[in-house]
Amino acid sequence: MAHGPAKGIGRWLFATNHKDIGTMYLWFSFAMFLLGGFFAMVIRAELFEPGMQIIKPEFFNQMTTMHGLIMVFGAIMPAFVGLANWLIPMQIGAPDMALPRMNNLSFWILPFGFALLASTLFMEGGAPNFGWTFYAPLSTTYAPPTVNFFIFGIHIIGASSIMGSINIVSTILNLRAPGMTLMKMPLFAWTWLITAFLLIAVMPVLAGAVTMMLMDINFGTSFFNAAGGGDPVLFQHVFWFFGHPEVYIIIIPAFGVISAIIPTFSRKPLFGYSSMVYATSAIAILSFVVWAHHMFTVGMPLAGELYFMYATLLIAVPTGVKVFNWISTMFRGAITYETPMLFAIAFVILFTLGGFTGLMLAIAPADIQYHDSYFVVAHFHYVMVAGAVFSMTAAVYYWLPKWCGRMYNEALGKTQFWISFIGFNVTFFPQHFLGLAGMPRRYADYSLQFTDWNMVSSVGAFIYGASQLLFLYNVISTIRSGEKTDDPKVWEGAEGLEWTLPTPAPFHTFSTPPDVK
Amino acid sequence: MATNPVRKTAVWLLFGGIGMFCFALFVLPPLYDVFCEITGLGGKTSGPYTQEQGAQQNGAQQNGTEQRPVDLERVVKVQFVATNNGAMPWEFKPLVQEVKVHPGQAQKVAFYARNATRRDMVAQAIPSVTPISAAKFLHKTECFCFNNQPLKAGESADFPLVFFIDAELPRTVNTITLSYTLFDITKQGTEQKAEQSTGKNTEQDAPPLAAVL
Ligand code: HEM
Ligand SMILES: [Cu+2]
After folding, report:
1. Which of A322, A371, A381, A406 is catalytic?
2. Alpha-carbon distance A160 to A73, whole Å?
3. If you measure from the C-alpha of residue A97 to the centroid of ligand 2, how many angstroms do you get, rounded to a whole number?
4. pLDDT by residue (tens digit) across A98-140?
5. Looking only at Cα atoms, what is the longest distance across chain B?
6. Known catalytic residue: A3?
7. What is the DSSP string of B130-195?
8. What's the CATH class of domain B40-212?
9. What is the pLDDT of residue A353?
């Protein structure tokens, strides 16, 4: 076991080491983040002014669709899988992931899935233009011919995610070091265990949805075609049966990251560890029974509206427990504000704000007004960007010194934080106003009264976009020339097995399991 | 390496995933249809109304040959809407905009359709009822929507519809809108939709109706 990494490109192509695979996932997801971010810049540039400026409406639709698909499936999800690869074995005292060769496969099919998806941009008929939610019949009867590439792309991406999840569950359930009981695991491992179960349950449903589309389009079935006895509303049910758990798949690992960072910089153990575990599980279970809050306007009967409204409101309870625990952890702690902590605190504030707008949307009679408006866009960017993306950024600043044995530049990190924080809020806060004033989402143009806030929002978006380039610069310069550190703990307040390992973390760790008291 | 317990966990999870895929593909769609059928949600009316169904529903009035009670006290307004789906080029409209009926009383109406194009086409009409809570109280004994409707180039036809409103219709409903959307299914051919018109068409339950008409 004494050998180090292989030389040359073979190290990456045939990688089975969890750290190498984690690194590849992280870089891949960052590349996708930049690509999706570029599409967002195109969208915001077009929306800077009313009227059509730089692109055609058809292309605008392709941009919103590709932006959503790439950010959800290409940026956020693989980023957390990368983090899981790096951290879970080190946190539970395992030598590697349980299924290293499948790990290699699940990473390496991803680039092909996204190549299929992105290649549609250059094909006749253009990229998918039906929105990231790809409602039938837009995505079947009226879809561009490239829709088949989209479908196979989703199949591949889904297979990758399912394999990744099987690996994570197998690792956590079988490879924990002696003495590492489930209730001693760091919350990041816990949140990923729950997320992986969610993924295994709902990614196949997504695969089923696109398979039905494939058959409707190519083999004359009528799952979603009313003329043949099917129903397009069925599509929405199947999609959101996947879709709502999916939004928790995106945020639950972020809960784990935040639950690691806040105690470190508050120098206090996490408040209410077991209630965190139960709250996360409750959120995961509830996420299966609230899907139709995305469908309040399809013509549900009153009983359905009421049920989905109250069930959705119920999710606020375990979510509130988590926010309460984070705040209690900080309460009277000896807090310092390093970059990861700044992102974590911003997460708590902004995610909570996104939760509140979620509650507003969950009120069925109100949602009939807000549905498909910019208010919804504001809501989900608060939870997905200020939630998932901020937590990822925090995680990279927090663990990067452990990974590469070099410290990032604190001043640059803080600068990036403030630019991101301001850019983010300038972009998305005005979108609440736009939505409440009646601006619909997914249109390439808008009426004049929406101009001012759209300009503000676009300026914010360019600022936020620029801050991500600064982030890239920070990471690269840290890896290349950051100040060296060999302190195993890196952060004096950090607790957990990964901080008992040497810094930088050697290629092989815990080849003999540690003893956990 | 894949020690045994690891393999066992992985295989279980894999089967779980495959199970969910089959669930989405083979269970969810039929479940959805059954659910809508039973509850009448989705505003779809069901297939041809038959005697047995009627007997089952008003279990108390056992023998199905009995005339349906007609509730002369109550009047329900039924409105008709005809829509063309997408680029369907036919002319399609109800011959009367609305009728007033007593619950239990059979009513015959017709929709006019004309294929003004130069090619032979096949259409399928899909019904939808508003309010959706009324869907399962609107019974059709004869409907052009039970089958697909071919019209030759330039041909026109009056499509018949015979229905009655169930006496059990909730008191709160006084107006029902019955809408048909006409789909062009020329491409899919004629075999489509066969499964939906399961009932052996309308002949059997004709007598009582014929009597009323
Ligand atoms: C207390 C928690 C939350 C509640 C009550 C809530 C509620 C809702 C509701 C009712 C909608 C539908 C709005 C509409 O389309 O009219 C919605 C949309 C959405 N939510 Fe949330 N939400 C919550 C948290 C989250 C989280 C944590 C995420 C993801 C990280 C998320 C992601 C989304 C997304 C992506 C959409 C829009 C989907 C689309 O139509 O494209 N939400 N939310
Ligand atoms: Cu949801």
Report:
1. A322
2. 11
3. 32
4. 999 999 999 999 999 999 999 999 999 999 999 999 999 999 9
5. 80
6. no
7. ESGGGGGGEEEEEEGGGS-EEE-TT-EEEEEEEEEE-TTS-TT--EEEEEEEEEE-TTT-SSTTTT
8. mainly beta
9. 97
Residue closest by Cα to atom 10 of ligand 1: A362
User: Which has more confidence, A133 or A220?
Assistant: A133
Pairing of strands B76-84, B175-184: parallel
Told to judge if A155 belongs to the known catalytic residues of this protein, a careful annotator would answer: no
Cα Rg of chain B (Å, integer): 22
List chain B domain ranges: 40-212
Residue of A200, A214, A240, A300 to mutate, interface with B, max B Cβ within 10 Å = A200
Across the interface, whether the CB atoms of A234 and B43 are under 8 A apart is answered no
List the domain boundaries for chain A: 10-500
Instruction: Quote the CA–CA distance of A246 and B16 in Å, as a whole number.
Output: 17
Considering the candidates A244, A371, A381, A402, report the single residue annotated as catalytic. Answer: A244
Tallying the residues shown for chain B, one arrives at 213
Question: What's the mean per-residue pLDDT of chain B?
Answer: 78
- Minimal CA–CA distance to A156: which of A119, A195, A193? A119
Q: What pLDDT is recorded for position B42?
A: 66
Non-local (6+) Cβ contacts of B145 within 8 A are B124, B125, B126, B127, B161, B180
Please report the pLDDT score of residue A452 as a whole number: 96
**CATH superfamily membership of A10-500:** Cytochrome c oxidase-like, subunit I domain (1.20.210.10)
- The rounded Å distance from CA A365 to ligand 2 centre is 16
Question: Could you give the CA distance from residue B175 to residue B169 in angstroms, rounded to a whole number?
Answer: 11
Q: What burial letters (b/e) apply to B108-143, b meaning 16+ CB within 10 Å?
A: ebbbebebeeeeebbbbbbbbbbebbbbbbbbbbbb
Q: Where are the alpha helices (DSSP H) in A146-222?
A: 147-174, 187-218
Position B73 scores a pLDDT of 84
Q: What pLDDT score does B206 carry? A: 33
**Cis preceding-peptide flag for B30 (omega within 30 of 0):** no
Partner-chain contact B25 A208, CB within 8 Å: yes
Test mutation, B12, B13, B88, B193, chain A, max A CBs within 10 A: B13
Residue ID of nearest Cα to ligand 1 atom 12: A294
Among residues A293, A402, A406, A432, the one annotated as catalytic is A293
Confidence band, pLDDT 50/70/90 cuts, at residue A450: very high
Residue B201 has pLDDT above 80, yes or no: no
A355 within ligand 1 shell (Cβ under 6 A): yes
Give the per-residue pLDDT at B53: 56
Residue with tokens 């959706």: B132
User: Residue B59 has what pLDDT?
Assistant: 44
d(CA A30, CA A389): 11
Q: Annotated catalytic, A293?
A: yes
Q: Residues of chain A whose C-beta is under 8 A from some C-beta in B?
A: 98-99, 102, 141, 162, 165-167, 169-170, 173-175, 200-205, 207-209, 211-212, 220, 222-223, 226-231, 233-234, 237-238, 241, 299-301, 304
Classify each residue of B4-31 as buried b or exposed e, where b means 16 or more C-beta atoms within 10 Å of its C-beta: eebeebbeebeebbeebbebbbeebbee
Q: Which residue has the tokens 């959805």?
A: B32
